[in-house]
Amino acid sequence: MMRPMMDTAIEVVDQWEPDARAVLAPGDCLETLRTMPDGSAKLIITSPPYNVGKAYEKQTELHRYIDALLPIIDELVRVLSPTGSLCWQVGNYVEDGEVFPLDIFFYPVFAARGLHLRNRVVWHFDHGLHASKRFSGRYETLLWFTKDKDYTFHLDPIRVPSKYPGKTNYKPGDKYGLPSGNPLGKNPSDFWKTLEEDWESLVWEIPNVKANHPEKTIHPCQFPIELVERCVLAMTDAEDWVLDPFAGVGSAVVAALRNGRRGIGCERDESYLHLATERVQALARGTMPYRPLGKLVHKPTGREKVAQVPKEWMVVGEASVAKTGALSAAAEARADATITSLQEELWPAQPLLFGELDTGR
Ligand SMILES: C[S@@+](CC[C@H](N)C(=O)[O-])C[C@H]1O[C@@H](n2cnc3c(N)ncnc32)[C@H](O)[C@@H]1O
Fold first, then answer.
1. Nearest CA to 288 among 216, 337, 232?
2. Taking 70 as the threshold, does the pLDDT of residue 264 lie above it?
3. Given CA atoms 148, 150, 151, 157 in this order, what sign does their dihedral have?
4. E strand or H helix at 77
5. For 156-161, what is the mean pLDDT?
6. How many angstroms does the Cα of residue 177 sit away from the middle of ligand 1?
7. For domain 12-285, which architecture applies?
8. Which of 195-204, 275-284, 314-323 has the highest mean pLDDT?
């Protein structure tokens, strides 16, 4: 049930103003960034455009793409607060089936500007394109840098339930026999697939925003709001500015506003910017579709048709179902039994694959 998040409409302005709550600036982000004071953004979280273009010299093209972003990156480092964080979320650039993990190319750019890498977060999702000549890509990365060694990081608001909350200290001493964990939960780690809730033994994850995701808009690769929220809650305080220079449909701005922060997004595509403004207003009305942080991902029960091995793939007796096109009742029952035992054998045995290439986003 969606409840109103705010009492009144949120005023959205189109250029940087220190007292604004929400800025959605049209045009090239470089122009807006140049109007922002040094150190004004506590969190910069963004997914830069991947449009590297067609290339015959891939590495050269890639470096050209990164070089084109350098003036923007210089401005981002300038406007980043001394205790602030920059989260740079990227996947792979793929050309002729060859994979170029963009975080590898961006890391030296930020390191050369004095930023300190705190985590390389792997964001795993289950859906995407199916590759045929390499492993299907099911993760992207988020490079979390801070400007200094002293930085804001609040662990408590983003803790997730411990797997074994009943664990106790076993070493002799004052704490022997007492609970060893934190009652607020554990650190969510740098692998953002599973936020395990032990008492229900269920797996939680942050799905990417695909067709049936409640937040889906026309944007091809928008951030799930909950992914940004984890960074907002951990790396900022109330009233701080959260900046997304490549705002798309404004997911970072919405995540900031939902949590009592200020949000500024730049976007040069008018239709995305318009949608971003609508999402902010819908947030104020309490009608913005939103998938809450930590909500369970739908898991098939096995009874859904799409979760079952098609009978056409089964061989019953000498004849394959694909060939006969129809099954007798007895053959169908045998096929059902075989399918069930195959499912039991195959699916639980699938290892949790992790570390695949490419992205489906
Ligand atoms: C990967 S998408 C970001 C999507 C965003 N995270 C969201 O949740 O909707 C990159 C966006 O940057 C925009 N863009 C690219 N270059 C830009 C620039 N120089 N200034 C402003 N926006 C830009 C593109 O139009 C695109 O919508």
1. 216
2. yes
3. positive
4. helix 58-79
5. 92
6. 53
7. 3-Layer(aba) Sandwich (3.40)
8. 275-284
Burial of 158 per CB tally in 10 Å (0-12, 13-18, 19+):
buried
Encoded tokens for 200: 């229900």
Which residues share a beta bridge with 242? Answer: 43, 263
Cα dihedral sign, 178-179-181-183: negative
Atom of ligand 1 lying closest to residue 247 CA: 5
**Contact by Cβ (8 Å): 30, 75:** yes
Residues 210 and 127 sit within 8 Å (Cβ to Cβ): yes
Report yes or no: 156 and 102 within 8 Å, Cβ to Cβ. no
356 CA distance to ligand 1 centroid (A)?
25
The answer to whether the CB of 159 falls within 8 A of the CB of 185 is yes
Q: CA 300, CA 267: separation in Å to the nearest integer?
A: 37
Q: Is 295 left (phi over 0), alpha (psi -120 to 50) or beta?
A: beta
User: Which sequence spans correspond to the domains of the chain?
Assistant: 12-285, 305-346
- Quote the ligand 1 centre to 293 CA distance (angstroms): 23
Q: pTM of this prediction?
A: 0.80
**pLDDT score for 210:** 60
Residues framing ligand 1 (Cβ under 6 A): 28-29, 47, 49, 219, 221-223, 246-249, 251, 266-269, 272
User: How many CA atoms, within 13 angstroms, populate the side-chain half-sphere of residue 359?
Assistant: 24
Read off the tokens for 161. 């339930």
* Probe residue for ligand 1, chosen from 225, 268, 274, 359 as the CB with the greatest number of ligand atoms within 8 Å: 268
The tokens of 267 are what?
Answer: 């976007």
- Cβ within 8 Å of residue 165, ≥6 positions away: 179, 181, 183, 198, 199
In whole angstroms, give the CA distance from residue 347 to residue 344: 6
Upper half-sphere CA count for residue 246 (Cβ side, 13 Å) = 18
Pocket test for ligand 1, best of 34, 267, 273, 359 (most atoms within 8 A of CB): 267
269 near 46, Cβ under 8 Å? no
